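Thread: "does anyone have the structure for this chain?"

Original post by V.I.:
We have the sequence but no experimental structure in hand. Need at least a predicted one for the grant figures.
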Amino acid sequence: MLRNNDAAGLLKMFIRELPSPLFTVEYLPAFITLVEKISKIKLQLQALHLLIMLLPEANRDTAKAFLQFLKKVVANEGKNKMNLWNVSMIVAPNLFIYKGKRANQQEMQAAATTAHIVRLLIRYQDILWTVPSFLISQVRKTNEAAMNNSKRQLMFDKGVRKLLRRKTMERERPERPESDIPEGVIRVYAPLHSKVSMAIQLNSQTKAKDILARFHCENSRGSSQNTRGQIQSLHEIGGNIGQHCLDPDAYMLDVYRANPQAEWVIKPKAS
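Reply from O.Q.:
Generated one for you, tokens below.
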């Protein structure tokens, strides 16, 4: 019979014996430095958030699953006697001292630092898996500046303007005039559903997941079985962002105001 301690030992050994560390050789020093050099928790979290975004997708997905498991362990502290501090102290050495790298005395003394990092990862993990809002804002500003520069360069180029006019006429769906859709109303497209579009009035509480739920309700009978089984996500396309898969908890009125020229499309979520 497998005991709890044996299962925990196997999990720690699996993490410790990975061919390369979960947080990668390249970024491990940065994880340590952000705690040693930054004193404010808010700034530590911002730096930690950016480091998580830099990880390869496989590492990030594995870290997410691992941290979700650790969060469940801590949530059952009353039964297993493993609080956040205990879990962090036990897990940290296996994340920051890896196969092929001998731990020296200085690194062993840094156990408190690495345990603090693990505590932050477990406690604040819910904010770590989406692109930070300040980065989204920066992308919007960069794209808007690029579009403005492009407009100025093309203003007197008649040949390019003719080409753009021709391309516009060839589009499958002509652009709707601004007056066609009232302020605060977006038209959401869902090409794979039986009801392919819907105008939705936004308010201060409308979230992306509310729009997905409304489409799911409207299309639950008419959609194909394959479509029903897919995980859907709402995408912001065009305007000043290119393409952005929205977080389910994103407040849509704020996103709409930041990019009123965008189109809104429901598509299967990338695996």
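V.I.: this helps a lot. The first helix runs from residue 4 to 16.
O.Q.: and The chain has a mean pLDDT of 80.
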